[in-house]
Amino acid sequence: MLKRMSYSSFPEDVLEHVFSFVQSDKDRNAISLVCKSWFEIERWCRRRIFVGNCYAVSPRMVIRRFPDVRSVELKGKPHFADFNLVPEGWGGHVYPWIYAMATGYPCLEEIRLKRMVVTDETLELIAKSFKNFKVLVLSSCEGFSTHGLAAIAANCRNLRELDLRESEVEDLSGNWLSHFPDTCTSLVALNIACVGSEVSFSALERLVGRSPCLRTLRLNRAVPLDKLANLLRRAPQLTELGTGAYSSDLRPEALSNLAGAFSGCKELKGMSGFWDVVPAYLPAIYPVCSGLTSLNLSYASIQSPDLIKLVSQCQNLQRLWVLDYIEDSGLEALAASCKDLQELRVFPSEPFGVEPNVSLTEQGLVCVSEGCPKLESVLYFCRRFSNDALVTIARNRPNMTRFRLCIIEPRTPDYLTHQPLDTGFGAIVENCKYLRRLSLSGLLTDLVFEYIGTYAKKLEMLSVAFAGESDLGLHHVLSGCEGLRKLEIRDCPFGDKALLANAAKLETMRSLWMSSCLVSLEACKLLGQKMPRLNVEVIDERGPLDSRPKSFPVEKLYIYRSVAGPRFDMPGFVWNMDEDSALRLS
Amino acid sequence: MEKFGLNLKATELRLGLPGSESPERQSSDENSNKNKKGNTVVLSLKGLAGPGAKRGYSDAIDSKWVFSGNTSDGSINNNGGKCVSGSDSGLCCPVVKESGSAQSPKPVVVVQEKKSHTHNHGSAPSKAQIVGWPPIRSFRKNTMSSHSAKNDDDSEAKLGMECLYVKVSMDGAPYLRKVDLKTYGSYMELSSALEKMFSCFTIGQCGSHNVLSRDGLSESRLMDLLHGSEYVLTYEDKDGDWMLVGDVPWEMFTNSCKRLRIMKSSEAIGLAPRAMEKCRSRN
């Protein structure tokens, strides 16, 4: 007779051991909801926290619930901050978090931040508070200088990763790299591509030389090409390399020297950098092309013929970021050579020119969608598109998960029929049932939103600009897209009705951004008052809100769910619309 | 009215064409509302003085300044259609100082004409820029713009990423701002944009209740601003030196400006002579 094991006698440490195999946040959250004892066990053994909006919860609350966290990831500003739509001073300061964690998580090992304001003071606090600190990733952050980096380098003895991807660093001295002590040999990843000034090259060489575990090295533009060969020889185990400036005086022995150095890097999988490319030096990387899975040429002004020569050798390419110099012909070659391609991003070389400067059209993307069966992630800037092309792409690639199309001129219609692109995007959402991210452009009516609301059930993030005709458009999206987490809208005629009618939906989302739309101050106030678990923030740089009638549309609106209440660090041009604030305003 | 430039007669730098008459300069009168003739660029942050202050200077501009009508492609708008960023984007024309003589408007400052030349090389001017569109990250924009500047083996000038973000700080303000210098065609445009941007620190923040405003500027502070010309606009150039804005032709300024600072006048004393020496040594 089998005795049933009762849950109460199931040893905690066994449960904890089982839970340790469950890493995803979603699953961990599910575990914590099973019963009280599982909630308790789980919270003590959760080691990794991801907070998608740093204002959604307070550091104190996080530390209280999860007492022994080793890795924290935080995001600050809204996505549209990348395009300068969020004024400086808006917020996203990480210091309060670091301050709280300095005492709350002394064993913290990893900090990953995105779009946050990080000061030197913050970096210094990190450097001295966490004895076992290993990983610092600052993605699109700002507010710090090379002094702060020096503090990290000098004090974090077990540092494995220092990744400053696309952050803004104030250059006060190139010497910060020398602050890594000779005893530091643990580096696995170093990304300084965004640092403007020269770093001490000898310090860099020595650092690379004494880091046998170094796998990722992304240099900044100031590192000249003639130094690259030496660096590569010291780090043949690299899997990811970002070159510095890829130009030099043309000396034949330099080219073969470099090619030789590259040949030594047998494990190289990804490359980036390539600023100021001199095409004659590209053959130096031919030895590694067949092994490359990721190639970022989006800063390289290489013309199509050279690009074709290059990508044709990269048969294992899974990800390509490139400028529109590749043109339709280059994309055709890509489609023929790179059958494993999963992600393609084509950036504009001259986004502000009126006339197209390259022959890149919808044909290029159609070609790739036909030739690359694994293509699932697209970011494509171009100047014309058609419904037909979109329908073709949708039919070719039902496995598409991320589709971002940017037709450079706002409200551009189908260039063949002069119709809106509703049908085309409709086909995308209808066919691509796993679509998680979508960015729209071109001429679009409310109809496209009806399609999105009807079909895009897995959609998590939607970006809309210069589209739609009425509140109905917004209503379709808010009422139809069940999985929607982030919605960002600019310059659309969406107003109060759809927003107020779907107020409850907003609590199921991470955030909503609306700028240059038609949402009135009055509606914002109403929303703020009715929904205590939403922070309804109006951003308006035109002066105090009560100097305008309540029916006047606000400049920008950022709504996000939060259990932390209104934030304390709002600058003068941001107002919270909750009850108390409303009283102060009138 | 706060004067940002030097008495240019003392240096060789002018904003007019070589050979154009430079009339007698009026003595510097800090509180004067009079429009100054001559070739000095007068950048006023008068708007900072509070909500009641008239934009007298802008009125003066409309009547006195002449828009240049002569560019390589014949278009009237010769700053390439660039305009002040913001949702009310429209086409702005650069403003040129004329000496009040009856001379017909010549092409704007040679410098500016060159700028439009570079942009358009004969074709239609680029469109007025919308803020944040196309959606390209600043990092990419700034990287590409400095890249295109280096690309000299091209016969055509590459347009690249046409923007140049610099930080603007103001003494006493709790946070700084960023502006894209390429969206302005002249000191005037920059000045009025900055006025708008920083006026939120003074306008309306001090209500009638004599309390400390959200931004910490008290009413007494506002009174200071109203009565004085407390601030000057300065910039840090590529060499790391702080200079008064307005000394050099606009394009030279945008090429060398790394950041801006709205500085208390009292701190700005001593900047002027250095600027002069620098310009001399450059020439």
From TrEMBL, chain A:
<dbReference type="Pfam" id="PF18791">
    <property type="entry name" value="Transp_inhibit"/>
</dbReference>
<dbReference type="InterPro" id="IPR006553">
    <property type="entry name" value="Leu-rich_rpt_Cys-con_subtyp"/>
</dbReference>
<keyword id="KW-0217">Developmental protein</keyword>
<dbReference type="InterPro" id="IPR041101">
    <property type="entry name" value="Transp_inhibit"/>
</dbReference>
<dbReference type="GO" id="GO:0010152">
    <property type="term" value="P:pollen maturation"/>
</dbReference>
<dbReference type="GO" id="GO:0009734">
    <property type="term" value="P:auxin-activated signaling pathway"/>
</dbReference>
<dbReference type="InterPro" id="IPR032675">
    <property type="entry name" value="LRR_dom_sf"/>
</dbReference>
<feature type="domain" description="F-box">
    <location>
        <begin position="10"/>
        <end position="51"/>
    </location>
</feature>
<dbReference type="GO" id="GO:0005634">
    <property type="term" value="C:nucleus"/>
</dbReference>
<protein>
    <recommendedName>
        <fullName>F-box domain-containing protein</fullName>
    </recommendedName>
</protein>
<dbReference type="InterPro" id="IPR041567">
    <property type="entry name" value="COI1_F-box"/>
</dbReference>
<dbReference type="GO" id="GO:0031146">
    <property type="term" value="P:SCF-dependent proteasomal ubiquitin-dependent protein catabolic process"/>
</dbReference>
<dbReference type="InterPro" id="IPR001810">
    <property type="entry name" value="F-box_dom"/>
</dbReference>
<dbReference type="Pfam" id="PF18511">
    <property type="entry name" value="F-box_5"/>
</dbReference>
<comment type="pathway">
    <text>Protein modification; protein ubiquitination.</text>
</comment>
<keyword id="KW-0833">Ubl conjugation pathway</keyword>
<dbReference type="InterPro" id="IPR036047">
    <property type="entry name" value="F-box-like_dom_sf"/>
</dbReference>
<dbReference type="GO" id="GO:0019005">
    <property type="term" value="C:SCF ubiquitin ligase complex"/>
</dbReference>
<dbReference type="GO" id="GO:0010011">
    <property type="term" value="F:auxin binding"/>
</dbReference>
<keyword id="KW-0927">Auxin signaling pathway</keyword>
<keyword id="KW-0539">Nucleus</keyword>
TrEMBL record, chain B:
<dbReference type="InterPro" id="IPR003311">
    <property type="entry name" value="AUX_IAA"/>
</dbReference>
<feature type="compositionally biased region" description="Basic and acidic residues">
    <location>
        <begin position="22"/>
        <end position="33"/>
    </location>
</feature>
<keyword id="KW-0678">Repressor</keyword>
<dbReference type="GO" id="GO:0009734">
    <property type="term" value="P:auxin-activated signaling pathway"/>
</dbReference>
<feature type="region of interest" description="Disordered">
    <location>
        <begin position="1"/>
        <end position="40"/>
    </location>
</feature>
<feature type="domain" description="PB1">
    <location>
        <begin position="163"/>
        <end position="265"/>
    </location>
</feature>
<protein>
    <recommendedName>
        <fullName>Auxin-responsive protein</fullName>
    </recommendedName>
</protein>
<keyword id="KW-0539">Nucleus</keyword>
<comment type="function">
    <text>Aux/IAA proteins are short-lived transcriptional factors that function as repressors of early auxin response genes at low auxin concentrations.</text>
</comment>
<keyword id="KW-0804">Transcription</keyword>
<comment type="subunit">
    <text>Homodimers and heterodimers.</text>
</comment>
<dbReference type="InterPro" id="IPR053793">
    <property type="entry name" value="PB1-like"/>
</dbReference>
<dbReference type="GO" id="GO:0005634">
    <property type="term" value="C:nucleus"/>
</dbReference>
<dbReference type="Pfam" id="PF02309">
    <property type="entry name" value="AUX_IAA"/>
</dbReference>
<dbReference type="GO" id="GO:0006355">
    <property type="term" value="P:regulation of DNA-templated transcription"/>
</dbReference>
<keyword id="KW-0805">Transcription regulation</keyword>
<keyword id="KW-0927">Auxin signaling pathway</keyword>
<dbReference type="InterPro" id="IPR033389">
    <property type="entry name" value="AUX/IAA_dom"/>
</dbReference>
<comment type="similarity">
    <text>Belongs to the Aux/IAA family.</text>
</comment>
